[in-house]
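User: Can you write out an input/output pair for a complex, sequences first and structure second?

Assistant: Here is one pair. Inputs:
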Amino acid sequence: DAKTTQPTSMDCAEGRAANLPCNHSTISGNEYVYWYRQIHSQGPQYIIHGLKNNETNEMASLIITEDRKSSTLILPHATLRDTAVYYCIVRVVRDDKIIFGKGTRLHILP
Amino acid sequence: EAGVTQFPSHSVIEKGQTVTLRCDPISGHDNLYWYRRVMGKEIKFLLHFVKESKQDESGMPNNRFLAERTGGTYSTLKVQPAELEDSGVYFCASSSTPGRRKETQYFGPGTRLLVL
């Protein structure tokens, strides 16, 4: 079973920052927080991952709380193409499989 | 660099028939994974190959499903005989080296299977 809790859906205005929360209160010390997204009719796409420090790449930023029990994925300037289901996953890097939950359906509004 | 490719993109078959799905991973990726999403459910892991060996097949639903990866390159997933509940989207993913901090799985576009 997925070890994360995410809101079912969220709306965000185009051009604004989209902040997607995730709770992972039972995360272990060796588990990373991963984010993937699935745009309609495509396969899941890796976005970002981190252990305890905040991370940033060309797609997004990941903010992890100090106690590591929750995190926020930030899409700084959301576009219509960011409409997708976003999955927050906790995972030991050496694990082979990804366990997907229900994710958050993000709607970017024009 | 080409991504993960899957063939066919769609397949419609009748119950009892056989279907074979193919996945071509990113060149050089030793790890190949199969996942599926059935209607209304979450994406579920099926199995994992390391080169031509099955590392983990704990997610395979039953013995009607047979996955192969001869030669450690492309993989096939055969469903024989197909049942109605097998309908869904089958995803393939590949990765280079698990256990490394930068490791991530790259997914293909999926094969949409409909069993009538």
